[in-house]
């Protein structure tokens, strides 16, 4: 039953232990039931159907349905990983979650930032110990934003692959271009190339499916109508001023944002404005990703949420992250 007075996200400051982080490494609610059969390839882009076939073959190689990696390698060039490369909204996360469902035994699914947070919480050696022996480590939104992450993830995936764990990842950036435009990638070319060499790269072309089904701009709610709009959504809902929320997000690690939005039926944002600080913008992207994963509707006043990232940000090294967030905000406000 809808509530009369929205609560506040600022009251949610979750802590997560390493064990809790590991237990949460499963597909988000939106993709909990994703299967290869429920993926809808766009007939105008044959690479989508081809990607389904390649993911299916990769899954079969883990379950004995094909010539796989565990004692059934196809040849000396067989690789332990599959990398789904494409623009936002072409169904990469759906395919990754479907692959996770098909994988046997112990397996993990998380965003890139969740894995780096896991290493931070447990320490590198304990994180490797935890993940070793898994049939599959699935990494969504694979992005390397600094050289330390580049070298750490290269080492981690190398150790896991050497023990037989299969790796699957999605990103908007081909693996040999990870880090491009964000740091001196040429200084880390060897590490980035080593990471790239572990994957069979599957290109997925197509249009953003969210843009196919919703209007092209984020809906705006009048400030005096926010509580009424939130009252039409399932309880519980929250309502916060934009700037205090940004400050709150700066005090919570992004890997814990999923706990901030868990169980919500709607989020209200009052006084949205264009962001000028890169750190605020990237934290807001991570927050939007978790809202989208949990399919939490958003009602907002002020600047339309598809205009929340300034022009200078949209031409910088994080352009693809911002565009993905805009696409998701349009869907969440519609």
Would you write up a description of this structure?
- By secondary structure, this protein is of the alpha/beta class.
- The protein has two domains: 33-207, Rossmann fold, CATH 3.40.50; 210-333, no CATH class.
- It is built from 14 helices and eight strands.
- The chain has helices spanning 18-23, 46-63, 92-102, 112-122, 124-131, 147-162, 189-196, 209-213, 226-231, 242-250, 257-261, 278-293, 311-314, 319-333, and strands at residues 81-86, 107-111, 136-140, 166-171, 199-204, 237-241, 266-272, 298-302.
- Strands 2-3-4-1-5 form a five-stranded parallel beta sheet, with helices on both faces. A three-stranded parallel beta sheet has the order 6-7-8.
- β3, α6 and β4 form a beta-alpha-beta unit.
- α10 (242-250) packs across α12 (278-293).
- The longest helix has 18 residues, at 46-63.
- The radius of gyration is 20 Å and the shape is globular.
- The two termini are 21 Å apart.
- One of its GO terms (biological process) is cell division.
- This is Cell division protein ZapE.
- Keywords: ATP-binding, Cell cycle, Cell division, Nucleotide-binding.
- InterPro entries: ATPase_AFG1-like, P-loop_NTPase.
- Pfam families: AFG1_ATPase.
């Amino acid at each position: 039953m809808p509530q009369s007075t929205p609560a506040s996200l600022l009251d949610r400051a979750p802590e997560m232990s390493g064990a809790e982080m590991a237990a949460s490494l499963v597909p988000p609610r939106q993709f909990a039931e994703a299967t290869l059969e429920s993926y809808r390839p766009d007939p105008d882009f044959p690479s989508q159907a081809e990607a389904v076939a390649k993911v299916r073959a990769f899954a079969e190689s883990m379950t004995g349905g094909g010539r796989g990696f565990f004692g059934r390698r196809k040849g000396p060039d067989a690789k332990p990983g599959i990398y789904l490369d494409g623009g936002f909204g072409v169904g990469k996360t759906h395919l990754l979650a479907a692959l996770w469902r098909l994988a046997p035994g112990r397996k993990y699914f998380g965003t890139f930032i969740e894995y780096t947070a896991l290493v931070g919480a447990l320490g590198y050696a304990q994180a490797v110990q935890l993940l070793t022996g898994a049939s599959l480590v699935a990494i969504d939104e694979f992005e390397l934003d600094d050289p330390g992450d580049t070298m750490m993830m290269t080492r981690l995936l190398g150790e896991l692959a050497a023990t037989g764990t299969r790796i699957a990842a999605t990103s908007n950036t081909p693996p040999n271009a990870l880090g491009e435009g964000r740091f001196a990638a040429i200084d880390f070319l060897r590490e980035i190339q080593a990471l790239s060499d572990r994957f069979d790269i599957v290109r997925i072309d197509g249009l953003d499916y969210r843009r196919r089904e919703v209007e092209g701009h984020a809906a705006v709610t009048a400030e005096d109508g926010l509580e009424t709009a939130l009252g039409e959504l399932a309880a519980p809902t929250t309502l916060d001023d934009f700037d205090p929320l940004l400050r709150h997000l700066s005090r919570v690690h992004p890997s814990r944002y999923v706990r901030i939005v868990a169980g919500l039926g709607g989020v209200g944002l009052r006084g949205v404005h264009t962001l000028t600080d890169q750190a605020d913008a990237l934290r807001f992207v991570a927050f939007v990703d978790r809202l989208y994963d949990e399919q939490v509707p958003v009602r907002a006043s002020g600047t339309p949420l598809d205009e929340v990232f300034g022009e200078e940000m949209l031409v910088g090294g994080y352009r693809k992250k911002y565009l993905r967030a805009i696409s998701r905000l349009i869907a969440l406000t519609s």
